Amino acid sequence: xxxxxxxxxxxxxxxxxxxxxxxxxxxxxxxxxxxxxxxxxxxxxxxxxxxxxxxxxxxxxxxxxxxxxxxxxxxxxxxxxxxxxxxxxxxxxxxxxxxxxxxxxxxxxxxxxxxxxxxxxxxxxxxxxxxxxxxxxxxxxxxxxxxxxxxxxxxxxxxxxxxxxxxxxxxxxxxxxxxxxxxxxxxxxxxxxxxxxxxxxxxxxxxxxxxxxxxxxxxxxxxxxxxxxxxxxxxxxxxxxxxxxxxxxxxxxxxxxxxxxx
Amino acid sequence: xxxxxxxxxxxxxxxxxxxxxxxxxxxxxxxxxxxxxxxxxxxxxxxxxxxxxxxxxxxxxxxxxxxxxxxxxxxxxxxxxxxxxxxxxxxxxxxxxxxxxxxxxxxxxxxxxxxxxxxxxxxxxxxxxxxxxxxxxxxxxxxxxxxxxxxxxxxxxxxxxxxxxxxxxxxxxxxxxxxxxxxxxxxxxxxxxxxxxxxxxxxxxxxxxxxxxxxxxxxxxxxxxxxxxxxxxxxxxxxxxxxxxxxxxxxxxxxxxxxxxxxxxxxxxxxxxxxxxxxxxxxxxxxxxxxxxxxxxxxxxxxxxxxxxxxxxxxxxxxxxxxxxxxxxxxxxxxxxxxxxxxxxxxxxxxxxxxxxxxxxxxxxxxxxxxxxxxxxxxxxxxxxxxxxxxxxxxxxxxxxxxxxxxxxxxxxxxxxxxxxxxxxxxxxxxxxxxxxxxxxxxxxxxxxxxxxxxxxxxxxxxxxxxxxxxxxxxxxxxxxxxxxxxxxxxxxxxxxxxxxxxxxxxxxxxxxxxxxxxxxxxxxxxxxxxxxxxxxxxxxxxxxxxxxxxxxxxxxxxxxxxxxxxxxxxxxxxxxxxxxxxxxxxxxxxxxxxxxxxxxxxxxxxxxxxxxxxxxxxxxxx
Lengths: 262, 623
What we know:
The structure holds two protein chains of two kinds.
Chain A: E1 13-26, E2 41-49, E3 60-66, E4 75-79, E5 84-90, E6 95-102, E7 111-116, H1 125-134, E8 137-148, H2 152-159, E9 169-171, E10 180-182, H3 209-213, H4 217-261
Antiparallel strand pairs in A: 1-2, 1-8, 2-5, 3-4, 3-6, 6-7, 9-10
Chain B: H1 6-13, H2 24-38, H3 44-50, E1 79-85, E2 94-100, H4 125-128, H5 132-135, H6 154-161, H7 168-180, H8 185-191, H9 208-226, H10 234-244, H11 248-263, H12 266-300, H13 308-312, H14 317-341, H15 347-353, H16 364-376, H17 401-407, E3 409-410, E4 419-421, H18 422-430, H19 435-447, H20 459-503, H21 505-525, H22 527-540, H23 553-560, H24 570-584, H25 588-601, H26 606-622
Antiparallel strand pairs in B: 1-2
């Protein structure tokens, strides 16, 4: 008989960032050795953690990616720890349904997320040119998952230091001493977004961007900046409207008086 | 007749007697017949009537059982016819009655035998009868309760008891009656037939209350005279009070009310009940109203600054300490938010230290331990050491803000929902209750160059976005308002125009002429431009003679909205009718007829007809 679920901690929310995305290459490409006929693009859809973030497997145990039904074995399941990715070749874009299974301590049900597989270059001309040049199209999205009122057990796993183990390198401190896990690298491991975009740590693919390094506080600030700018123009429009309203009011009063007087 | 047996019948009919076979039946019959006759209390004939069988319920009279004569345990007592005296009587009437003579055995002997009466014996019966009866008081004498009759002398009367409308005679008469009838007021009132000795006055009709009032008044005064108020004891004083506080009017009204109650019909009773319920409802709702009004008044006003009740809680030192902790916890939460912004590695040990002294009491020991450890073992990378792990209890509250920031822990927005996504929140912010609203918001967002999906759904971004959407909502509201206001303005200006025209006859006509003529070529172009013109004219109020599609307030509405507003404004209607007239007025006769037709068609709309008449008038003037 499994142990009953531990009590939930109130007024708490655990948040984790992770990346859902896909890369796509024009074939032929070294990564995809023997594509079937008709497939023009090779792609890889994945669910990744932040490069300097805690290990995803603490809360994510299994990912099921549902590809288009025309694919053999359309439902691909990947369990922890493996990189949660699926590489395939194809020619059409479709929506990939991603089902996230959580760690049993959390006693949460699986959730679905949808990701649209982008194969063709997109964006501004400059972006498109770059994508073509590098022969890499990346479409990524940062997603935050929020665990409201987590169970005690889950909470413990989520706040343990072990989460950052995966980033550490086994290294000896000296003669006669036990090897220890030491972190190398510039950015301090934390669940927050890193300050700056970081280069790929494990070197999955060449560019830092695809490895999720693009997601940084910097980018966030950019987005914020954009929003604020829009906000500013909105404020302007509001002001304009308000002034108009004022003048209209005055006019109405005027007219009202005139009509009444006559 | 007795049961006609077979033998008898045969005998009668002269048949031969049967000897062999029918023998047994006669025997039976005989037996039953015999049995019958054995029953007592019933005639033989009657039983024969009933038949051979006994009835199911045998009606047999049994001899009644009489009770045995009761035994008398005692001997019969002796009663004697003796005279007795009634102490209640004043006239000394001696009556006689039967009284039981007591058996004298147990009678105690007098010790000394003062009057020489020896132990009574049976032989002495004759003498003894006299003794008990006159000695024992008459049993019923004690029921002769007399009312205390207030008595006064002539002097006392003239000094204190005088009252208008009451002569001494009458007062005395009243006193007599009351004491005679034992203060039974209904009787007194009924028997009150005062005939004044001086026959000039007619006997007044005194009501019960009047009599009572007079009587109480007299009693009270006499009481007062007897014992002055200060020296009255409680009982006396209460009596005095009751006497003086007698209010005849009140009493009579009360009695009337009671009588009314007695004689009311069921219908009236129902009505009364309903009214009472109504009243109760009103009273209740009044209370509610008061409460609500007070609420609103409080809310309108500034919030009360120092409520004694609230402040009083924190008088004790313990309460203050708790308050301090609460405030700190709240502050810590706020600081969490701030901490995230500056989550530099260098800060973590510092920040790990900073909240330590402020932590809750239970954590103090572990906190200081942590403090020292973190100081001692900071790695070159500035990583928080192993010692800064949460304590053994491991709840959320045990983590420092730094740790919380590291692991992204914060109070949840919505309680109870287990998993949510950041991008969901963004999406939710974007959608409104109605699809049209959502579309409008979306339109504004695209105008502002914000993409459909924001790639970084972090909390900061979400908050910022929320603010943005809020402002967009405001903008949309303002725009909607603007439409309405502009319509209103157009209407008012058209009204003004109309009034101006009717007021200044020919002037208005001329103005109209120019306007109508100028609008004539415009109508061929389209309705909108003439509408424009009229609006402009109306809007200007005649100030600007220039008819130019200037950047006036009104222009924006027509230019911006691609679709025509559903509620056609009055001005537009005006213009439309004019246009129709003019198009129809290619031929004069047709125009006239057309105008008349249109007038009749629009007769239901008062305003329009007014303007229409105006137009018609000008039309006539023109042609």
